[in-house]
Hints:
By secondary structure, the protein is α+β, with helices and mostly antiparallel strands. It contains two helices and nine strands, in the order αββββββαβββ. The radius of gyration is 19 Å and the shape is globular. Strands 1, 2, 5, 8 and 9 form a five-stranded mixed β-sheet that branches. About 20% of the residues lie in helices and about 45% in strands.
Amino acid sequence: MKKSIILGILMLFSTAMVAQTETYQLSSHILDVSKGTPVSGVTIKLEKLVEQSNTWIKVDEKVTDKNGRITDFLKGNTSNKGIYKLTYFTKPYFERNQTESFYPFIEVVFQISDNSHYHVPITLSAYGYATYRGN
């Protein structure tokens, strides 16, 4: 009898844990290719295009973690279709590293067209960058 009670409590606890897990549809990552290291402490702003007025509205703004990542843009349980822009504020990063750079910030515009996960990373150096849709 005690075994079944404990099993029931464990099942209830694990169900509650799953129910509380948030999913996110958008993530990003910055890698400094000149050093081969992730870029932490960079602010990234997320905006969405309002097509009727051709204006951008701020959705969120976060700072990359020690691994150069932001994993929690756009909750995944809502419809997030549309055109978005990520602005990577890179100037303070280069200033902290006493590196002259060409790009004070980088804007990446992309479209979310379904409910799948979108990963939009950049590889960065003082005089160049690249982006792609990752996973």
